[in-house]
Amino acid sequence: MARKRVGILTGGGDVPGLNSVIKSVVYRGAEHDIEVVGLRRGWEALTHLDLGDPASRARYVLPLNRDNTRTVDRSGGTFLHSSRTNPAKMKTLPRHLAGQTFPSAQSTKGGVTTTTFDVSRQVLANLEGLGLEYLLAIGGDDTLSYAQKLHAQGFKVIAIPKTMDNDVRNTEYCIGFSTAITRAMDAIERQRTTVGSHERIGIFRVFGRDAGFTALYTAYVSSIRCLIPEYKPKLELLVDLLHRDKLENPSSYALVVLSEGAQWEGYKVQEYGEPDAFGHRKKASVAESLSDEIKRRTGEETIVSDLTYDLRSGEPDFIDKMVALTFGTMAFDAVLENKSGLMSALVDGKYDLVPIPDPKLGPRKVDVDSMYNKQRLRPIYANKRGLPIFLNKI
Predict the structure, then answer these.
(1) Does the N terminus or the C terminus of the chain have fewer Cβ atoms within 10 A?
(2) Which of 348, 349, 13 lies closest to 161 in space, CA to CA?
(3) What pTM did the predictor assign?
């Protein structure tokens, strides 16, 4: 009797803890005589894989076992690699699919019409050709949106949420969040000496395209002000608070952390470059824009630090390693129970399996009224009794 085969992939941006998920699934698989196959470079593995080409197989398919995963959890990132590939919206067909017909759609933006192709038929064919009965997809909103689509088409999928933005719906926690906050906190605490030595206003930019969890929790543990995408203050209030902070600080400096998607009234985030596979363009630095406004309005000098990519680098901290291992084993339990369309999650501070989020709902957002002080542009510290460890409920 053939062994059951389970595929596993990581999509989107890397975060610390991904390798811990992979190792936990492989080790559980060995215990139950289930083969685990690594699909390299995220969804690209299933769109670009040419089953008849040995070089393509070597590029995209990696059988996993206890030997080649034994030490992977000791480092960050994903040793399976990643990509931002959306099989439902491919702008260009892989070379070996050229000339074939796939469902297509057209969209027009800025006077430019773009045609995209849905190659889900090829994804399903590759999954069947590899003999895979299940797929474990590790990712954020974008990666999991296609996982949900694959489940709807009848293939068995279990999802694991990861993003340092912590904005996946149906869970209070995503792998990578704790390490990101730890990194941001450490960087800000180190830079206090430089910002204070030069008596300036320190402005820190972190990831957070649509949700402000990373900036908010960094501000929470660093006791500084923050700006998040969910609320647009008046620029005068923001600049005045920072100016007063500096004047009232015996060391003559002030600090603020901004989400990349943060705005104030009258400011629009500037984007540049080509959209990725999920329609996202890079955002110009709101931190630099705020720096210019502070200098213009107060004459104060600033120091701007972009912490973004540094927050997702390096090994995971204790929380991310523990959650990653647990999310992986929960996902494997779901496979053993023949379930599909579910995601490992934390709900009310407890581990659970929940439905993969509906992509139409978009990312989870900060509840401004309960978590953000709009007058002080700080986290709300009061009234936390009864909340789960990460201070919010889904």
Answers:
(1) N
(2) 13
(3) 0.93
Give the DSSP letter string of 297-363. Answer: HH---EEEEE-TGGGG-S---HHHHHHHHHHHHHHHHHHHTT--SEEEEEETTEEEEEEPPPGGG--
Separation CA 194–CA 202 (nearest Å):
9
Q: Which alpha helices (H) appear in the chain, and where do they start and end?
A: 18-31, 44-48, 54-60, 66-69, 120-129, 141-152, 177-197, 213-222, 235-248, 286-298, 318-336, 368-371
248 phi/psi in degrees, rounded to 5: -90, -10
Residue 19 gets the label, from left (phi > 0), alpha (psi -120 to 50) or beta, of alpha
C-alpha torsion angle, residues 88, 93, 94, 95 (rounded to 10): 160
Q: Which residues contact 87 (CB under 8 A, 6 or more apart)?
A: 43, 46, 47, 118, 119, 120, 122, 123, 146
Average pLDDT, the chain: 94
CA distance 206 to 330: 30
53 touches 61 (CB < 8 A): no
Contact 375, 240 (CB under 8 A): no
**Distance (Å, rounded) from C-alpha 144 to C-alpha 157?**
10
Whether the pLDDT of residue 333 is over 90: the answer is yes
- Rg of the chain on CA atoms, in Å: 22
Contact (CB, 8 A) for 324 and 78: no
Mean pLDDT to the nearest integer, 252-267: 96
Residues 44 and 94: their CA atoms lie apart, in Å, by: 10
| Residues paired with residue 258 on neighbouring β-strands, in sequence order | 205, 227
Cα–Cα distance for residue pair 23/345, rounded to 1 Å: 18
Q: Pull the structure tokens for residue 233.
A: 């203050």
